[in-house]
């Protein structure tokens, strides 16, 4: 199925985010985890921590930039998806939520953004 221009740009953003995280020593566990309740762009391992990563890309920082586009509703969907993902573990690992915010050509990494 043909992807839209917006989907292709989103994929490029996720590719850049993944490369950035891999270059900082994180290990990819899963990409684009989907469940009925939501989606996780990237699931990574950082040492003993499982990291759920939301990738946001915007042309510029106008209107708050990429990180500001993560609404409370999106945060709820991320938490639901993380809970579903964690069902595969007998013992829960330490977890955190990170954001990769891409504004233009600038990549920002916000760690542990939600409780």
From TrEMBL:
Name of the protein in its database record: UPF0102 protein GJV26_14130
Similarity annotation: Belongs to the UPF0102 family.
Species assigned in the record: Pseudoduganella dura
InterPro entries reported in the protein's UniProt record: Restrct_endonuc-II-like (IPR011335), tRNA_endonuc-like_dom_sf (IPR011856), UPF0102_YraN-like (IPR003509)
An example Gene Ontology molecular-function term: nucleic acid binding
Highest rank taxon of the organism: Bacteria
């Amino acid at each position: 199925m043909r992807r839209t221009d917006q989907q292709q740009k989103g994929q490029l953003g996720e590719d850049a985010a993944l490369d950035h995280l891999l270059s900082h020593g994180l290990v990819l566990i899963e990409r684009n985890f989907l469940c009925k309740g939501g989606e996780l762009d990237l699931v990574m391992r950082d040492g003993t921590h499982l990291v759920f990563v939301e990738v946001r890309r915007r042309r510029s920082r106008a209107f708050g930039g990429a990180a500001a586009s993560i609404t409370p509703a999106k945060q709820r969907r991320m938490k639901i998806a993380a809970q579903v993902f964690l069902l595969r573990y007998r013992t829960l690992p330490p977890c955190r939520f990170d954001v990769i915010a891409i504004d233009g050509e600038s990549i920002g990494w916000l760690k542990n953004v939600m409780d």
